[in-house]
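Minutes, project check-in
Item: structure for the 300-residue chain
Input as provided by the requester:
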Amino acid sequence: MSTISKVALAGATGNLGPAILRGLLDAGFQVTVLTRQSSTHTFPPNVNVSPVDYDSLDSLTSALKGQDAVVSTLSSLALSKQLLLVEAAVKADVERFIPSEFGSNTINDKARQLPIYADKIKVQDALQKEADAGRLSYTIVVNGPFLDWGLQVGFIGSVKRKKIDLFDGGERVFSTTSLPSIGKATAAVLKHLEETKNRAVYIHDTAITLKELAAISKKAVGEDGWTTDNVSVDEMYDNALAEMKRPQPNHNVFVFGLLKTGIWGEGYGAHYERNDNALLGLKEFGDAELQELVVNVAKS
């Protein structure tokens, strides 16, 4: 396989995009950010910016001409836009496509059945079709929930409010990765093309239970004032499906409920016992690194 030097990044804003951009730049890639034509975001001077129409094959193909790889971090509401982006990548002779996954193990059969992942599965199928025809290669990055972000906004737990939910008792091991590590690993994928070709790579900063994470968090910021609630994953899942059927469903109830089911439910493949950390240059966090991360989240 040839060497990757030029990378197009679709979706360089939001929670994940800036970390991916930093990882690519730190690894020495020439990055072109694809932005919506109405975007007013600014980027570092060493980043090329290409406004595109995500609904136009011609616009996307033109923007991808000369690019070696595409990395997509498009948000959940725009995941279906990737189908045209895949088509454009093929027309532009792009070599590697990394889709907007960066979360739960959607390769797992049970996880694939969760309705929130329907668009991701469609993109996976499109990529596999192109790979089978020899027109494009791909890599899916599976990293579990964002560790730092998850503790900051309360998705995994809230360090600032000193609150954490223990799903089904909080004793299932799950893999989780910080945003900077995801950026570093994504860039490393493009340095290891053959080893990561047409497959999922699994990474994590730590594999831990919610009970263990709660104990580390208490040690980092103090024991006093914490509250924990036991939450049934089955009830959360049922509530999420019921919410989806409402005329105007509450996004937080059904999306977060299904996301959390895929992480802390039984059988969703959320613990990456076999992973690609060594290949992609990641070292697992020990207790000291985890405590430091918690302290930094508390200060942010």
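Outcome recorded: The first strand starts at residue 6 and ends at 10.
No further action items on this chain.
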